[in-house]
Structure formats: C-alpha cells, structure tokens
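Exercise (ungraded).
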Amino acid sequence: MEDKQTLDDKFFASASRHQTWCDIPVNAKYTAEDIGHLDYQSDIADPGAFPYTRGIFPEMYRSRLWTMRNLTGFDSPRLTNQRMKLQMAEGATALNLIGDIPAQTGIDSDHPMAEGDVGVEGVPLCSVQDWQICMQGIDMENISLNFSNYISPLLAAMIAYAEEKGYDPKKLRGTFLNDTLAFLLTKYYPKMMEPFDVGRRMTVDTVLHCLDYAPRIYTLSTGPEGLREHGATAMQEIAFDFSIARYWFKEILKKGQGRVHIDQIAPKMGFTSRVGVDLFEEACKYRAARRVWAKMLRDDFGTEDRRSCTYKVYALTMGSQLQGKQVQNNIIRETLQTLAAVLGGVQGIHTMGYDEPLCLPTEESLRLAFRTQQIICYESGVVNVADPLGGSYYVEWLTDKMEQEMTQIMNDYKETIADKVVSGELVDELRANAYKFQKEVEEGRRPIVGVNCFTISEEQDRQAEVHRADDGAVAEHLQNLKDLKRTRDTACTAACVEAIIRAVEDPAANIFPALLDAARARATVGEMMGAIRMGYGAAYDPFEMIEYPF
Amino acid sequence: MTAQARPVKILLAKCGMDGHDRGIVMLSQWFRNAGMEVVYLGPYQTPKSVARAAMQEDADMVGLSFLSGGHIQHASKTVAALKEAGLNIPVLVGGIIPKVDIPALQAAGVDRVFPAGSAIEEILQHIAALGIPQGN
C-alpha cells in the first residue's frame, strides 16, 4: 500500500502551526511590552526565592543535579534486580520500580485474572519475600528508590523487608506514589477502590504514619500517567495535580485533627509529571507550576515555609508522543523532552527507551536513555546556569499565560475534583482531547514526522530487536509465591490480616501499623488489599473469583 | 464506505488486565462517526467473555487492543474461543505490536494487525473491504 503524505503542503515552506503543542496561540515575536505587567521580585524572583518561578534552589544544578532515575520492572523480582544493577552500572543515580499490573491493581500473581499479566508492565511483588529478591545486593540506606505504585500494602511489604535486612526505616529515601485518586485516573480496575473510602484510607493513613516512621520517604506523589497520556494539556496536568494535592492535604489534616500542621504534610509531596517535546511550553509549564504551587500553599494553607511551598518534581518523558513508525526518531524526541525537563528545572528524570512504542527497554535502549541524560548534563552546558531561559520575553509571557490558565482550571475544580475522578467524568473530558488530537494528525493539520509526513515504506522501516518476556522467570516467581503460602505460619498470618479488618472498621485508627504487621507475617499484597476492602463492606476479591483464604 | 444492507458491527475489547485504553476508546468513537455500529466491552475481558459478547451482539468482526506485550497469547486464545463458539468472524489487532510479531499473530488466525500509528483511514478501508461476513 502506497504510503501517503497527508500533511498539508503549507507546512513545508514555513512554520504554519502557530500554536504550542497544547494549542496555546503564540505570536511571531515577543518584546518587553508583552511582559511589562510582570514584576521581577514578586512574580518571578531569583531562583530559590518565593514564588520559585526560576527554580527551587538558588544554584540549581550547580548544587545538585537531577537524579537520573529510569523506571524499570518486568518478569520477576530476580530479573528486575539484575536490571536495576545494570542501570546503576550505566549511570543511574537513583532507582524507580514499578509493580506489574496485578501488583498495581492489588491482586496476587496467582489470581486467575492475573494469568498472562504477571511480570507485564512491571515487576510482580506479592510479599516481603519478593522484595528480598528484588532488592538483593542494593543498599537501601544509600540510594533513593521511587516506588511507582499506589497500594499501601506494597509499601508496607517494602518497609518490612528493609527492617528485616537491618535498615533503619528512618533512613529510607524515595517516593511512594500513594495517590489513590491518581490510581483511578490511570484506569485500573475501579472496583479496586470501591467504595472510595478504601483508597482514601490507605493514602491518608500512610502519609500520617510515615511522618515519624519513615520521614525521608515522600509518601505522596500526584501526577498520574492517566492525565497527559490520556490527552490532558500541560495546563490541565498541573491544575488537576494541584487540585488533587489540595484535596489530599485537606483530608490528611482532617484526620490529623489538629495534631499535624501543613508544614509537616506538604513537604511529603514529591510530584510526578510527564514532559513533552515542546521545549518552551514544557519549561514554562514547570516555571508556572512552581509559582502556582507556592501561591496555593500561601493562600489556601497559610504557609510560606520553603519546604512546603517548593514544587519538587520528577519528570517522565511522554510515551504517547513517541511513534512506532521509524522508532529511531524517538531518540530525537526523547532528547528534546529530556532537555525540556532540564530547562524546566526538575529534580529527577526518566527518559523512555526509544523502543517504548514496541516493547519494554532492551539493554541497548536503556543505555541510550541514560546517555541522553548524560550528554545533556555533561556536554551541553545547560546545567551551568539556573533557569537559563529566564528573562526571555517569550518565556516570561508564556509562563504567565500558562499560570493564568492553570489557576482558572483549579478554581473550576476546587470542590469537585475528587468526585469527578471517582465518577469517571474527568477521564471523559480528557478523551475528547485525545480524539481532537488524532483528527488533527489524520487530517494533516498537525505534523508528526514519520506518521503523516516523511513516511517510509513498511519494508524500509526496520525495527531492532525487541525485549521479550522470560516465561521461565515468571514461572519461578509463581513457584516462590506457592512456597511462601505453604511455608508461612498461616495462623499468624490470618490473625494479622484479621487485624487489618478490625483497624479499618475503627475510623480513628491508623491502618498502616496493621499492614506492617501483616507484611512481616508474610501476608500477600492481595490478602492485605482484600482485608481493607472487607473492612469497608466490599467483596474480598474485586473480580469475585476467589474467596477470603483464612 | 460502500453501501451495505446495514452498518458493519464491530466488537472492541481489551483482554487481560492492562487498562491503557486511550487508543481503543478513540477508535470506537472514530468508527461510530464513520457510520459503524460499535460495541466497546472495555478492559479486563477474557477470550471467553469476548466470544460470548460477540455471539450476543451478533458482531461482524472483533477488534482487540494491546499495550502490555501479551498480544500473542491473548489474541490467539480469543481467536480460538470465537471458533469454539462457532463464530467465523475476522479478528483485528492493534496497539503496541512489534512488526516481528505480526506473522505469529496472523498464523494464530488474526486477520490483520494495525500497530499504533497506523492511519485510521487505512483501518476503515480494510473494514469496508471485509464487509459483513456471509451468513451474518
């Protein structure tokens, strides 16, 4: 079949799409007049000074580089352990683990529904034992580990493992997503969090308990994948994130009943974000976000404490902007996305494998992802100056424009964000964006190289070797789970799981200690999640295929 | 599209636990706007649930979407489940599919694979060419 160039001819002679990626119309030039209404001290300020537009630290990357932290997880804890060690050998300065789909959804690898999805999209983690295998040989007191999961039993299992190994929970560093509203936005099985009390309780109790128990872990990370990758604009991304954050802070303060202060809670938030190819839009997004966050903490929560008011963020390059046609082109897209994040002043970056539209990263694409960050860091010079784009007429104008739109959206959703997430309305709005975007591509009004212009034939489009799942490793993991269930002290496990149900039923109780006890007693993640659900009167198994085992 | 006695009816689904449905949701709306009858079952389907729905809905064809890497296993089981239910209707597959897997999918009985990034016009033309299976 003949490859069609569907792009309008007008695009080939001059810049014809006079908008940012997220459709903000932009002029041919900007001058001092366009930013005359801004005051440097109050609106922009120096890096490290309220409202932090130019960066959260005065010297930014001169004092601390962003963490080179690429997400990983696949097949089995053992293979993921090897992959993390490979990452560190290739220059990773921090780690980020993601659980597989069953783990993310809070069911075990041996659940009937999990067949074919164990070790897919992440590492299966069912218990303390799996953490033992996964973290073998990795010093948890000396590396920051992000754990891209929403389910508190998984964190409990991680901490239980760390304690058994002799690590001090107070020294564990990293981020645990924990945002169960974000969980719903990523479109995992909504019944997992039905009623939503299940999610709310896990999120709130985990933050509160870990204030003292694991104080160096960021126990909240809003910034669900479901937003940008579903079609949200950059402005919606930040506005919805901050609306959700505001919701959680209020819920946590409510449960804390005057015993906790915003300046204990807000610093526990380490945001996650997605960064796209539009260099200026993304950099301005982060600048505007810092300003909006600082103002929100000051105006809505009455604090100007820098630990609360500084927007700390980890950026993952946007997978949905990568293309399956001519995948090598994604190396260039990744480079732009990563550079945008650096110009935006983020604290951590995940660069996707260029083969992301085809498969999980191979060793080669993993290495290239790190090299992308390293070349930007060590060869390009952009790290030498904090907020190097600051002062540009376009950049200050665009930052201000994006701030206005973010603030407007946040006002619209102030009281309704949680309801709109739980009901699914928010996702429906995002889907309309995704449809509109696709129409633009199909109709040649938005150029995507290799897709609607500069296409090549199927025969010419060679794809390199792809990553393959290791069925043997998955089988090994399933056997480990069987052995765990067979060898554990079932009476002890059962008592601990029952205790979770009791804790849930007492609204004043914090359920995290009960989760820790159960994890130590070799309860599985599915069992702990099921107990939380039962405490709220829901079925043990959201798929209603298996029974409560004790 | 060529004139049909009635619109083509397509059943769309995601098998297994992967919840990434931006593409399939967008396609279901696209197909509807193109005049097709669309039933989107949603994620978390099994080969059996797809076959059952295809029977109940009297679907002319099935479209499956994958992101997670389990496409060969889930697609081949779905093809088998449809055959077992006596349904001789084409199965189309889309999503994150490396080219190297296309022969295996076709050998398993999948009619055509449209990896992410395929022109939607191409998909619509193929569906029009398939038309309504005989006997439906």
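Further reading is listed at the end of the chapter. For now, observe: The beta strands of chain B are 9-13, 37-40, 61-66, 91-95, 112-115. The longest helix of chain B spans residues 71-84.
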